[in-house]
Amino acid sequence: MRFEKILVLDDELIIRKTLQEFLSRKRYKVRPVATVQEAMDQLQGDHDYDLMFLDVNLPDGEGTDVLEAMQGVENAPLAIMITGQGTIQSAVRCMKLGAFDYLLKPFSNDEINIVLQKAAKFHRLVTVNQELTSETSSWGNRTIIGSSPPMKALHDLTRSVARTDATVLIGGETGTGKELISHAIHSESLRRNKPFIKVNCAAISETLIESEFFGHEKGAFTGAVQSRIGRFELADGGTLLLDEVSEISLPLQAKLLRVLQERELERVGGTKTIKVDVRIIATTNRDLLQSVKDGEFREDLYYRLNVFPLHAPALRDRKEDIPLIAASFLQEYSRKHGRKLESFSPEAMELLMRHTWPGNVRELQNIIERAVILSVSGNTIVPASLPLEFQQLVQDSEGTGIQQSTTPETVKQPVAAASNTSAKAEANIAGVAKPASGEASGLVLAGEDFSLAAVERQLILKCLQECKGNRTHASEMMQVSIRTLRNKLSQYKDEGRAEFAEFF
Ligand SMILES: Nc1ncnc2c1ncn2[C@@H]1O[C@H](COP(=O)(O)OP(=O)(O)OP(=O)(O)O)[C@@H](O)[C@H]1O
Ligand SMILES: [Mg+2]
Predict the structure, then answer these.
(1) Is 112 in the pocket of ligand 1 (CB under 6 A)?
(2) Does some domain include residue 16?
(3) Ligand 2 centre distance from Cα of residue 244 (Å)
(4) Percentage helix, strand, coil for the chain under 3-state DSSP, each rounded to 5
(5) 141 within domain boundaries
(6) Residue from 155, 362, 366 to probe ligand 1 pocket by mutation (most atoms less than 8 Å from CB)
(7) What is the pLDDT of residue 158?
(8) Residue nearest to atom 9 of ligand 1 (CA)
């Protein structure tokens, strides 16, 4: 979350203009409005204003009306009141209503700068605090999607364990949603208004992890210039997520065991014993019991953690969840990237269902974001927007290169890609490339684009022209199904390819 978008409400044109020019020069995005009504309209629903300058006396009300309307609203921007000399008292009233600061008219550029700096600093503090305590910004309102039997069972278990203080160990392959589940447990627990703190045990260096866990006192080691509070203390009253717990070294496992048993710790270099009230959730994508057998993980710690085990199932074992999860990512990324995508073509969905998803939901998420970015026009995700290996799944099973169009990557690999074409497709190209009129070649590649996709387009265009737009004849000529041809044409229509206009 950056501090960047500002609403300016003032009925005096000169003040609106001055503020707008000044703030725009500083690269803020500014929206000037002259009435309370316009300001309210801007602040409806899911707006993205970070700050607002509000005049007090306006033709259709007072700036305080806006303040009042925003009270208790979660994403309310910071408010800076603009007041005249005579209305100092109203400025005080505004502060009581939650205004952040005020500017006294007439104000100088320096004064604007000062309030801006104060507001930016405050905004930063709030953001850091939010991220540290709940990480709500990165997790947003994401919910665990899935209605397959294993996911239903997981939902039930998650819900029942959430309300207890039991330690939870979540296992499962990478990308199956272990971290998401841990967030869900915290937010359904009685600790939900307390901090949710995560330690990524795999990412922190061996030398720093102890201080990361328990904090340190000033001078505890070289570089410890200030004392620092550790993650256990930060999580006090709330939940601590030990992400990838299998990666902790044996010496630290011993220390961790003690905190889990006694619920007390000492900071590194400290002597005072600190009591902590923390609910522990641990995740692992390794088989922890195997690590115990291999002597890499302490057995006693394993049993301390494995109080309530949960397993996040692999996506390939619950393929029926794919359409639902895919649709949710489609919506999310269409909004994010300003696209109007609404659905998947049946062919594209079939490819998603065939894939085995070694990277699980994270892989699905990435594939969909990529497809959304590649789908510049149209409202449907087509196979061409999926990675090449997905399309090969179908090519392998159907033995034809023409049915599925190429990905944008193939566009960059001209001759090599064309040489992958199956013998059947090559025969087709050759057949059509020598029309009855005896021209040397019927295929003239526009703009010297030798990609397979371009060759395919040219071939289809040529056949359609040859058959005077009769799709049945054209598809017979190419030896592909009429449905394939129809899909291709609809794809070209979505892509805005004018040369096909007469055949749509
Ligand atoms: N059931 C689900 N519904 C919606 N989104 C999901 C689901 N499962 C996972 N995700 C999303 O997939 C991504 C990966 O999930 P998460 O980070 O929780 O996986 P993980 O199991 O912790 O993976 P790793 O072991 O690699 O850390 C996240 O963006 C998460 O929001
Ligand atoms: Mg994880």
Answers:
(1) no
(2) yes
(3) 7
(4) 50, 15, 35
(5) no
(6) 362
(7) 95
(8) 177
As a whole number, mean pLDDT of residues 92-111 equals 86
What range does the domain containing 182 cover? 149-311
- Our answer on whether the CB atom of 178 is closer than 6 Å to any ligand 1 atom is yes
Residues 160-170 pLDDT 10s: 999 999 999 99
DSSP lists the bridge partners of residue 101 as 80
Going from the C-alpha of 322 to that of each of 86, 248, 302, 318, the distances in angstroms are 63, 34, 33, 8
**Does the Cβ of 175 fall within 6 Å of ligand 1?**
yes
| Residue 141 CB contacts under 8 Å (≥ 6 apart), including other chains | none
Let me know: does 289 contact 301? Beta carbons within 8 Å.
no
- Tell whether 122 and 156 lie within a shared domain: no
pLDDT, tens digit, 9 for 90 and up, residues 16-46: 999 999 999 988 999 999 999 999 999 987 7
Contact predicate 226/239, CB 8 Å:
no
Strands 239-243 and 264-265: unpaired
**How far is Cα 57 from Cα 82, in angstroms, rounded to an integer?**
9
Q: Which of 311, 337, 352 is the last residue of a domain?
A: 311
Is-above-0.85 flag for pTM?
no
Among 132, 165, 188, identify where a domain stops.
132
Out of 178-182, 371-375, 382-386, 432-436, pick the least confident: 432-436
Q: Which SS3 state, helix, strand or coil, does residue 400 take?
A: coil
Q: Are residues 324 and 470 in the same domain?
A: yes
Tell how far the Cα of 257 is from the centroid of ligand 2, in angstroms. 22
* Within a domain: 198: yes
Find the CATH number of the domain harbouring 9: 3.40.50.2300
Separation in Å, CA 230 to CA 127, 181, 198, 270, 278: 20, 24, 11, 12, 13
Ligand 1: which of 135, 179, 357, 364 to mutate, most ligand atoms within 8 Å of CB?
179
Ligand 2 center from residue 180 Cα (angstroms)? 8
CA of 315 to the centre of ligand 2 (A): 15
DSSP secondary structure letter of residue 404 = S
Summarised one tens digit per residue, pLDDT across range 288-327 is 999 999 999 999 999 999 999 999 999 999 999 999 999 9
> Do 239 and 366 have their domain in common?
no
Within a domain: 265: yes
The dihedral sign for the CA sequence 74, 78, 84, 88: positive
d(CA 396, CA 46): 46
What is the spatial distance between Cα 59 and Cα 13, in angstroms, rounded to a whole number? 13
Task: Report the residue count for the chain.
Answer: 504
> What is the number of structural domains in the chain?
3
Q: What is the pLDDT of residue 136?
A: 39
- Per the listing, tokens 């400290």 go with 270
Task: Quote the pLDDT of residue 451.
Answer: 66
